Amino acid sequence: xxxxxxLSSTHSTSPFLRPSPILLTAHPASVSRGAASEARSSEPxxxxxxxxxxxxxxxxxxxxxxxxxWQGGRGQSSYTIDSVDLTILPSxxxxxxxxxxxxxxxxxxxxxxxxxxxAFQLKKDDVPVHAATTEEDSVAYQxxxxxxxxxxxxxxxxxxxxxxxxxxxxRLDVAGLQTPVLYLNKTAPYEGEEFTATCSAPxxxxxxxxxxxxxxxxxxxxxxxKQPAPTGVSSETTLVLRAVGDSVLYCDYEVNLxxxxxxxxxxxxxxxxxxxxxxxxxMNVLPSSDVFEGDVMEVVCKVVNPLRNIEVFLTxxxxxxxxxxxxxxxxxxxxxxxxGKLVCKAEWGNVQKETNMTITxxxxxxxxxxxxxxxxxxxxxxxxxxxSVSVYAPERIRDEIIRxxxxxxxxxLTAAPAYAAVARPPQNGNYTCTAEATAxxxxxxxKGSAALVVRAKVPVSQPALSVVGGTLVLGKPFQLxxxxxxxxxxIAYTLNRPGAPAETxxxxxxxxxxxxxxxxxxxxxxxSDFLCHARNGDNRPPASATGQQRxxxxxxxxxxxxxxxxxxxxxxxxxxxVTLTCSVQRGTPAFTFAWFRAExxxxxxxxxxxxxxxxxxIGSVRGEQGGAYYCEADNPAGETxxxxxxxxxxxxxxxxxxxxxxxxxxxLLILALVLILALKRRLLQFKRRRTGELSVKSAGTKAxxxxxxxxxxxxxxxxxxxxxxxxxxxxxxxxxxxxxxxSVTSPEKPAQPEQAEARQADPxxxxxxxxxxxxxxxxxxxxEQADAASAVLFDASxxxxxxYAQLNHLPDPRGDxxxxxxxxxxxxxxxxxxxxxxxxxxx
Length: 843
Prior knowledge:
Blueprint: H1 33-42, H2 56-74, E1 79-89, E2 93-95, E3 100-110, E4 118-124, E5 127-134, E6 138-143, E7 152-160, E8 163-166, E9 170-175, E10 181-184, E11 194-200, E12 209-216, E13 222-226, E14 234-240, E15 245-257, E16 260-263, E17 270-274, E18 281-286, E19 290-292, E20 296-303, E21 310-316, E22 319-325, E23 327-333, E24 340-348, E25 351-362, E26 369-373, E27 382-388, E28 403-408, E29 411-414, E30 418-422, E31 429-438, E32 444-448, E33 452-454, E34 464-467, E35 471-473, E36 478-483, E37 491-497, E38 500-507, E39 514-518, E40 531-535, E41 543-546, E42 555-557, E43 564-568, E44 572-573, E45 578-583, E46 591-597, E47 605-609, E48 613-618, E49 627-634, E50 641-642, E51 646-648, E52 650-651, H3 654-700, E53 705-706, H4 710-719, H5 737-745, H6 753-761, H7 767-781, H8 786-807, H9 820-832, E54 840-841
Parallel strand pairs: 2-9, 19-25, 35-42, 44-52
Antiparallel strand pairs: 1-3, 3-6, 4-5, 4-7, 7-8, 7-9, 10-11, 11-14, 12-13, 12-15, 15-16, 15-17, 18-20, 20-23, 21-22, 21-24, 24-25, 26-27, 27-30, 28-29, 28-31, 31-32, 31-33, 34-36, 36-39, 37-38, 37-40, 40-41, 43-45, 45-48, 46-47, 46-49, 49-50, 49-51, 53-54
Helix pairs in contact: 3-7, 3-8, 7-8
């Protein structure tokens, strides 16, 4: 048969089983009758196991050996737990005390007949209540008398080797609780006496919570008087009843179950009679409860019907004055502090009875009071001490005399109610006085006053007024210290100053003075207006001091005035050295001067000087160094002032100016030449345009000849030489006009041969006709061109010159062809002739 994984016949994982060799010892129930009996005695009485035959041990041993041999031959056996069943008989709800059997049965299937050991575990509400290991397939748990504590849900778990299975849950409900039993060791205790009470329910199980009750016989009401801590099925405690009379005591208990708490019935009721304890004490105060100081008082406290072991106490304010058995008597002389409530207490065991009485002790005379005049005492002043009482009863004082005494530091100064002396350091100390009187009872009553501390004050010395820190900065707020070298504290310092109310500061610590915050002053002499008063007594004149007393030793710092920046020289040229001088008019040295350029970051220079001015020089100044400059000045006052800004304009160097002037002159000269050339060219163009217009007009007329009158010629001769600075009759024209005129009068192309031949073949033809014909021919040839017009004009001029020469019997100018000057003059003349002065004959 194949082996089943996880199963082993020699090893078991159950907590109740061990390997097979332990089986050789056999289960106690199957070894022998004696062993079975012994097992029954060790196990619960409800567990029943069947005993074997008489030779059971030998047979069991033999069968075990055979079983092991057989298992070794055929291998490991297989098994499975089919079911686990749990039964409770009787089932359902049962009454308390009913026997109940809880049985657990297991069914196991296996492949052989080898016995298996079953480990049973029985739980109630998940709490184990019974366990057994056996080869039997069932086990029984007997509840011979089921109680409420046995109620709950039961479950059985069976473990076979390494397999385990649980049954379904079964519930057992036990109805009813045992009625508790109450026992008292005393049924007639005294009020407040302790006695023992015991409440028990022996047949119940678990931890029971007991409670004790007292029920009134008159009203029938009950109240719980005690609930001790759970101790099992019985509780014993101590009870104390303080109310006198008859009552009934009983108890009950409570069981706490998973399903809830259950409460038992009441126990038996026991009548209890609480007896009154007649031990009330009697208290007497003699002579009365209202007495004067010095009276002798006696207090009697006793019990009339005493019991054994009774004690009596006399107390006041929880302080025992006296203690005695049965009765006591306390005698004392009354004092002021004896007023109050006296308590007389009788005690027997834990029972106490008390009575009280209030007593009042009146003062024979009041507590003395020591006073001093004057209250504000200074050294050298005369003072007087007086001891007095405000209330006293002369009728209760023998001879109505009160005796006084004054003491200093415990030493007697005088036996009188007054003491006078001059205040000196030896007179300082703690003064007290006592008052003493004899009562009518011959008792002496003495009282002492409270201590009066006499400390003569030291007059305040003349204060000194000084500036805190020893340095005064004019123009800034400062602090003044007013302090006296000697004087008893506290000292009130008052500062009077102009323009402000008086201010007072109280100094309560040694070495401290009055510190005052003051507004700024502009001059040192203003300190004379500050006045300080020091006072340490209301009845003494103050000591005074002024600020003028410390002016000599005071260090005064005057803030620096606004600096002035001067520049030398005033006109600055490139390459020169510029000196910036920064100066101040007022201030306390040392001064710190700093120079700045507005366009630059940081100071150019910084210097410390004892003088009121300092200079800074900029060497070989450059043009880019021009701009706004300023300086700053400060001194130990810590207030920096800035000057006005000065703009430095750096002029150009002389040689640069000359160079620039030359360059400018050359540029202007070039511009002038260019302008003149442009104007001359423009004028030439204008002349050409006028000549063209003249040519057009001459060609359009019907005149055949050109004639110039003598007057016109004379006019032209007179006018022309002055026009552009040249003579008509000069041989050489001036300037470059000859070139221009030549270019104007020179035709672009030679004259036609026919025209030349006509002029030469017919010399007798009138000049006007020739000119006219030439003009016409010229006009017909190139009428719109300026050069053609100039040629026609040139011919006309030539012809007119011929006529003019003939009239004046001059040689023909045309005969001198080599004289270019005459031609140029003619050209100039023609240029200057106004078109209106030309007369053409032809009509």
